[in-house]
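Give me C-alpha cells for this 298-residue protein.
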Amino acid sequence: MKYAIGIDIGGTNTRVALIDEEYHLVERVQFDTDAHNPHVTLQKIKDAINLFDKEIVGIGVSCPGPLDLLHGVVLNTPNLHGGWTNFPIVEELSKVTGLPAFLENDANLAALAEATIGQGKDLRYVQFLTVSTGLGSGFVVDKKIYQGAHGYANEIANMIMWKGGPSHGKLSPGGIEAISSGTAITKRAQAAGLEVEHAGEVNDLALKGSSEAQAIMDDAKEYLANTLAAIFALVDPEIFILGGSVALKIDGFVEEVEKRTKAKVYPGMDPYVRVVKSNLNEDSGLIGAACLAFNKAA
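Here you go.
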C-alpha cells in the first residue's frame, strides 16, 4: 500500500493527514496555523509527518490563493500575512521534510476530491465553493482542475458583488468574501454591536429575532446566490458543492442559497441548478492534496 501526505493550510488551522492510495484517512494531526511566520508552521508539519510510520511517496499541499503554481509560491493571500507573502512553500517544505512536495489552490483541490470521490464523482462538470474563514472556489472538468491561462481561474474572493459594500483585509469593497465568508459575517455583526465570536452565533441571533443579525445573514445568502447564478451563466456546472464551516454547520444555509440561486437564472434553467453540501465534510482539501501527491509523485 502506498501513502501520501495531504496538508491543508488554512487561515486558522493546519491539518496534516496520512492517506492511503484508496483515499482513506489513516492518521491526522491538527494545529494552529501561524498566520505570520510560515517557518513555524512548516516545523510543526515536519513533526507531524515524523509521527507517521509509513513509506510516503510525496506531499500535496492545499493552501489559500492566489498562488504561483508554476514556481510553488504563496503570493498574497488575504488570510496569511507577514512571511507568507511571496513564500516559496514547495521549496522550503521539501527542504524541511526531504520529500517531494506539490502545491495547489485549496479550493481547487477540494473540488478535485469532490469530483473524484465526493458528491461529483459521477459527473463531468463539478463546481465547488468553500464558505469558511475565507471564500474560495474550484472548477473540475472530467476530473481535471480548470486553472485558466495563468492559474488564477476561480479566484472569486475578490469578485465584486456589492457597490460600496463591506471589505476586509486586502479585498476590494464589495468582494464576495467580505460579505458571505464566516469571517465577514462575524466582523459585520461585531461592528453592529453584537457580541459574537463566529458566524453560527450570528445565525442563532437571527433566529431569535435580531434584526441586525437577520440582515447580515440575508446579505450573506443573497450575494452568494448572486455569485452562483453568475457562475452558472458562465460555465453551466452540473452541480455546486458547498463546503466549509458556514455551509456545513449552519442549518438551512445551503438549501436557502440553492432556492435563491434558482430564482436568479433564466426561466427554464432552474431545474439544472443543484446546490448541495459536501459529503466529505472538511476533509476534501486533504484528500485532494493526497490525490495531487499520488499523481505527481508517480
